[in-house]
Amino acid sequence: MQYEVRALSPDNQIVALVIDAQDERDARAQVEARGLHATRLAPVRSFRRAAGGRGGISLVLFSQELLALLLAGLSIVEGLEALLEREGGARLRVVLERLLAGLREGKRFSSLLAEQSDVFPPLYVGIVRAAEGTSDLPRALSRYVDYQARIDTVRNKLVSAAIYPSILLVVGGGVSAFLIAFVVPRFATIYEGTGRALPWMSQVLLDWGKFASSHGLPLLAGALGAGIAITAAVRATIAKVGLVSLLGRVPVLGPHLRIYQLSRLYLTLGMLLEGGIPIVAAMETASGTVSPGLREGLMRARAAVQSGDALSSAFQSEGLTTPISLRMLRVGERSGEMGTMLTQSAAFYDGEISRWIDRFTRMFEPLLMSAIGLIVGTIVVLLYMPIFDLAESLS
What is the rounded distance in angstroms from the CA atom of residue 102 to the CA atom of residue 132? Predict the structure, then answer.
């Protein structure tokens, strides 16, 4: 297990380092053995996938910098040494030092990457391993950067499309809660002194407002508890079946998310095949980039291909194709350019997903604004209906 350590050196300098230890006691003993006094010692948190990387280390940025150095004529060892000299992050420095130590011992670069699976995913290790067979590491790094850029383009479109509706929901919910908890009780106090019968819908709203005002803390605690419980249930479900599979059960989103998953699968397989990785090994590597539901079908298709079936037939039998992608796969089998056809299929569906996101956003945002306006407007109208009745009686 790894521990992040902040320690005080004998000359009163603060030192930051990452060490491998069995437990906290072992880590503290290692720090003291170096003549340091640990002021902070905490285990490194489990690495979460960042944009194109893991554990806060961007594989895209790492690949771009290493690619630039290799294209400038530096060897892999010289390139990693150059990166180490300018790197200030403790985590990446540890990774680079391990890679350099292994290369100086004569180990293969891909094997060293595989030893640090918490940083380098199997997909990255696979393309580097294939590049070692052709002695063309720069091309493999360039291919990975392009691949991640295309994945991030679609993902960023999805995130951007969800930001504005989320803001609308938060603002609309906040305005509605303010009206009910603060404004409605004051109107209720005014109407109680008139001694007049109120319209039943207005009376219901006023009763609810008075209840929310007098039981504000219990309602807030209940809402927070329900939110925490729902969040925990959603996280457990996502951990079990995956976020994409969960959203795929929504009738409107399901078909389009399936296209998104297939597009990512085709793009991954295409990149691996163009890098020289055999189809069976490529399918095994690509299984780590798709949802659990799609992974099962991919593994069955892999077994079918391993037994001699064509890729297009195996994918079709497992529901991993669409009419267009099936035709393109068959063309790739006839021409021997399967990697290119898979990449072109992914590009076709990426464009289709982007167009659907734009159409959905243009349609959904006005509908959401109308719904929020209708809710707020209904509350306001119900508050003023007794005033309208009073004005009619006076006239």
Answer: 16
The pLDDT assigned to 242 comes to 60
Low-confidence ranges of the chain (pLDDT < 70): 1-3, 11-23, 44-57, 87-89, 193-196, 238-252, 390-395
Identify residue 313 by its one-letter amino acid code.
Answer: S
Phi, psi for residue 141 in degrees, rounded to 5: -65, -40
CA distance 86 to 88: 6
The model's pLDDT over 230-246, given as tens digits with 9 standing for 90+, comes to: 888 877 776 666 666 66
Amino acid found at 45 = R
Angle 161-163-165 (CA atoms, 0-180°, nearest 5)? 85
pTM beyond cutoff 0.85: no
- At 267, list the tokens: 């793009």
Task: Write the CA distances from 289 to 38, 154, 261, 294, 301, integer angstroms.
Answer: 40, 15, 9, 10, 16
Could you tell me which residues are beta bridge partners of residue 49? 54
Structural contact between residues 4 and 90, judged by C-beta atoms closer than 8 angstroms: yes
CA distance 390 to 199: 11
Token duo for residue 370: 């109308």
Beta-bridge partner residues of 228:
none
In the chain, how many H helices and how many E strands? 17, 6
What DSSP element (H or E) covers 41? strand 37-43
**Which of 209, 206, 199, 203 is closest to 392 using CA atoms?**
199
